[in-house]
Amino acid sequence: xxxxxxxDPTDAVVSANSVVPMEGGAVVNWVVxxxxxxxxxxxxxxxxxxxxxxxxxxxxxxxxxLEEYFDQAAAAGA
Length: 78
Hints:
Layout: E1 13-20, E2 27-34, E3 37-44, E4 47-51, E5 57-62, H1 63-75
Antiparallel strand pairs: 1-2, 2-3, 3-4, 4-5
């Protein structure tokens, strides 16, 4: 999602900030630092949203897109 928002994910640092149990699955809030910017990534059972300052949505991905990405990364040995 960083690439989709126009940022380089190469040296990004990602840290889970909080987990909120919800009906249907947990919501995980992540702090992401990349290209000298700080973002909030919120992942839910349905997908994820990358937010910047002022809570604006910079990129979104549904669960299918996220699963495809992780399957490709695992196949590539990442």
